[in-house]
Amino acid sequence: MRRLRDFIACLIAAVAATSAARAAPLSIRMSYVVPISNWAPFIVAKKDLARHWGRTYNLEAVRYQGTPPMITAMSNGELEIASLAYSTLGIAIANAGINDLRVISDEFRDGVPGYFSNQFFVRKDSGIKKIEDLKGKVLATNIVGAGVDIAMKAGLRKHGLLDKRDYTVIEAPFSTMPAMLAEKKADLVTTVMPFAVDPMLNQIGFPLFDQTEGLGASQFLVFTARQSYIDRHRAVLIDVLEDMLRIERWYLDPNNHSDVTRVAADLLKVPPERFSWVFTSKDYYRDPDMMPDLATLQRNVDITVDMGFIRSRFDVKQYSDLSLIEEAVKRLK
Question: What domains sit in the chain, N to C, each tagged with a CATH number?
């Protein structure tokens, strides 16, 4: 009888422990590169608007130098939701063999007519007036293989300039690009928001071209997750996307713009008046339903294949699962 009681006690304890584990919020790591361009820091800053945060999940924003290192993190199980560029999506699937990677939502698009496109700056006193003048020059990118890196090279290729043959590429953080141009460590630097509106950068330089030169409009960033993770945590991921939609729509509401600039100011520790452009037509385009443009994404991926960064073509739709965001949108109607 004593052994039976001990067995029942252990069984009850095991069931209780399992129930407690199931009840604990799921810890989810979401990647980002730039605090103002990417959604993750903005989402964390307004988690008070979320309905499921702390109940079914907890979200952590994890910063990376660029999107390529996120591929390794996803492969090693160190990241649950990756903000991948069109370029690194293809590299992850076709080159790294992460065959269960899935696009689950839009993050933002570049070069949509009437909206901002990433810019490539040169010094006003450099004598560089056209793309062909970059032959033999040093160009700075955040990290080789990133979306802006491939966009830059696509723009140059259109004008007959090829990487390594006609110019040299060096890597540097976005935050150091203005100083690199000022100190003549690079002849051209890559700028994304908010660095493209840096006062010093615009005083000494000007945008020679923007990302649309090589890509046209682009589905620049998408949120991705692995199918195996989706299958295990589908309900929680829908909760996450529902909360993200709710928060994103708050940021995109013009009535909240003054509050939004203060959030941005807190993130970067600069005056709010520096962010009059954020979430307006002077910023990237963000779909209010977080629905990605798969046709544009396919075209962007194909360009990356043509440039030799991706080994083989693939159908973007086969590597997308939009049922999660579709269900999240339905909840808010």
Answer: 2-112+218-331 (3.40.190.10), 119-210 (3.40.190.10)
